[in-house]
Amino acid sequence: MKGEYDVVIIGGGPIGSIASLLLEAKGLSVALIERNTVPYPFPRAIALNGFSMGLVKDLIGPELWSEFEFTPGIHVGYVLNKDKMDEPFGLMQPPVIEGKILDNDSFGFLNWFNQPQLEGLLRRRIEDRDGITTLYGHEALVLWEDDLNFVRVQELSTGESFDISGKYLLGADGGGSFVRKQMGADLKSLGKSIHFLIVDIKAPRSALRPGMDFDAGGHQIIDPQGKRPTTFIICEGKSHGTYKETFRFEFALKKGDDYTTIQSPESIKHLVGPYLNPDDVEIVRSTIYKFNSLISQEWRVNNMFTIGDATHQTSPFQGQGLNMGIRNTSNLVEKINLVHSGLSDDMLLDSYQVECYPDSEAIIKQSLFLGGMLFNIKPHINLLRAIIHTFNGKKGKPIDLFPEFVPDTVTVDNGFKPGKANQKGYPMYNYINEEGYPRSLRTYHPTEYRIFCKEDGSTIAEAVKRVPEIVSPMVIELSDGSDGGTTAGSRLVSAQRKEDLDKHNKLFKGASYVLMAPGYTMLGTYKNGQEEKLVSDYLSRFKLNQ
């Protein structure tokens, strides 16, 4: 088999599959190379955020989406010991606004899911697309560039080899990426690697021990005496969600642990026994896993790119590894489409790393910080935790960690210096949707470029008419609700708690417009009368051919 495609993707896991669907939707022809003929059968990633959920929903369509099982996590606590689970000294819990949990009417801030099921749904969607050629059961042996990117591919069942080519090549081939190595890109370590025993359990909620019957969420257990910090995740909600009978444990490994015997069924049942009745559990998977905190220093060489874990790897304490890959892949696909269509200059592709590196680095470091809260069991840190537990956990007043789990606003070198105060207003901005549910602004069309307007957006809406439709931003009016109006269409009304109104005021401090890229990236802030400057700045990002 020989063929020439617009894009060749090496690696058909969730990131490669999502990239292929995004590119095909833009009209590009894609060859997808993957060793495995069926999805990997065990769950690895377990959490998707709002950005990723919205993108997946749009990609797979309503019929497949109706089959997708997920449960929003609404309770993540940091506790000293497993016998103090009801006394968290820190709690990540979405706020309750007007009697309703934030973002819980559709999908929440963090959603538990089954990766094999997601990969199966993505493959079924790929099968329906004429523009994607799937080479499952194949391996990339050699790659080189000669105007186009060439790949020598071997069919594993027969040993037959053949060459294919593409204008663009994407390496979605994981942490040990063959593509990254052939690009000569170095990995930078941002922190120490950590070894865990990962255990996935199938069991009914009735298997939960007394005192463990929490709603869907996660628990970070310090365990300063036993010195085995543990993450305990409940994937089934009490009365919400469709992902059921699933629990995950992440047990830190200690010096001297025998990695083989600790994975025995008897050992695992002993470890999970304080949380679940071992007679009611089925061990789905156990494995020793090494969590890295790494980021590639070169994401592009000519028309060869890496995406997903091939580019960055993070510890699990924010549940952002796969989400980071999805967000950055979406960014790259948009740029490839603009360059391939002839609208933008090839230089635009350099901004893939420029725009995504700061966000990725910040998330990896933030995850390390949260992991440090779990792993640092030095005596003076344990004493500090014990004091916090006494004055907070025991009294039912845990420290609010929700802001620590929400990624900060990101700025980029090719942005337009947004105000620092304005950046503080975005991540925790909440509004009330048309159905009366509280939603976070970061979940409102997060894959789009957006212009947030303080009240009236008619002037800027007129100015953006000169922007080519393919890159046209959304214009969204944000109101503080002082006029008594409610959310309708692209006019959103802020939630009315004091902290929500404070975020509205911060977002627009000294500004009438806030220009946002997809995700959490704030590009610039502008005043009334600067509409033409906003549009000119915005257009300059796309390196449009004249």
Task: Compute the number of structural domains.
Answer: 3
Rounded mean pLDDT score: 92
Assign the CATH class of the largest domain: Alpha Beta
Low-confidence stretches: none
Number of strands: 31
Which percent bin holds the helix content?
25-40%
N/C terminus separation: 40 Å
Structural class estimated from helices and strands: alpha+beta
CATH architecture of the largest domain: 3-Layer(bba) Sandwich
Main sheet summary: 8 strands, mixed
What is the fold-level CATH name, i.e. the topology of the largest domain? Answer: FAD/NAD(P)-binding domain
The total count of helices amounts to 13
Rg calculated over all Cα atoms: 24 Å
Layout: helices, strands, pairs:
Blueprint: E1 3-10, H1 14-25, E2 30-34, E3 47-49, H2 50-65, E4 70-72, E5 75-79, E6 90-92, E7 96-97, E8 100-101, E9 110-113, H3 115-127, E10 132-136, E11 138-146, E12 148-155, E13 161-171, H4 178-183, E14 187-189, E15 194-202, E16 217-221, E17 230-234, E18 246-252, H5 265-272, E19 282-291, E20 294-296, E21 300-301, E22 304-306, E23 312-313, H6 321-340, H7 351-375, H8 379-393, E24 399-400, H9 402-405, H10 420-425, E25 430-432, E26 438-440, E27 450-454, H11 458-463, E28 474-479, E29 491-494, H12 498-507, E30 513-516, E31 522-526, H13 531-540
Parallel strand pairs: 1-2, 1-13, 2-10, 5-16, 6-24, 13-22, 27-28, 28-29
Antiparallel strand pairs: 3-9, 4-9, 5-6, 7-8, 11-12, 12-13, 14-20, 15-18, 15-19, 16-17, 17-18, 20-23, 21-22, 25-26, 25-29, 27-30, 30-31
